[in-house]
Amino acid sequence: QVQLVESGGGSVQPGGSLRLSCVASGTMFLVYDMAWYRQVPGKQRDLVASISRSGRANYADSMKGRFTISRDIAENTVYLQMNSLRSEDTAVYYCNADILRTGIRNNYWGQGTQVTVSS
């Protein structure tokens, strides 16, 4: 069984910062790409940022310069540092990872963590 557990969400005023964390746990041989997505009610889940095992990061255009994704390979953890937050960043943020276990590579999702940006 593999679990992705997010933490670090909450409420913040516009212009503020939050740092999200996601830990992958369970029986795993290798964690490949990890990513953060976000979703607001009634809309599709959109990519925020992704990062490869080598550390190559990719960002959605509206997050470039404000968000930073990083990971700790040894701890199977991915982080999302969010700065200069805007009201439109309010969403549920989901962790996503490609994980190899027992010879099968599957994609996994966390349960999500709410981020609310409001004055």
How would you describe this structure to a colleague?
The structure is a single chain. By secondary structure, the chain is mainly beta. Helix content is 0%, strand content 60%. It contains no helices and eleven strands. The strands form two sheets. Strands 2, 4, 5, 6, 9, 10 and 11 form a seven-stranded mixed β-sheet that branches. The chain has a four-stranded antiparallel β-sheet with strand order 1-3-8-7, with no helix packed on it. A hairpin with a 6-residue loop joins strand 4 and strand 5 (46-51). The protein is globular and about 45 Å long.
Q: Tally of extended strands?
A: 11
Helix tally?
Answer: 0
Shape: globular
Low-confidence stretches: none
Measured as a percent range, the helix fraction is under 10%
Secondary-structure element order, as H and E?
EEEEEEEEEEE
Rounded to the nearest angstrom, the radius of gyration is 14 Å
Strand content: over 45%
Question: Helices and strands: which structural class?
Answer: mainly beta
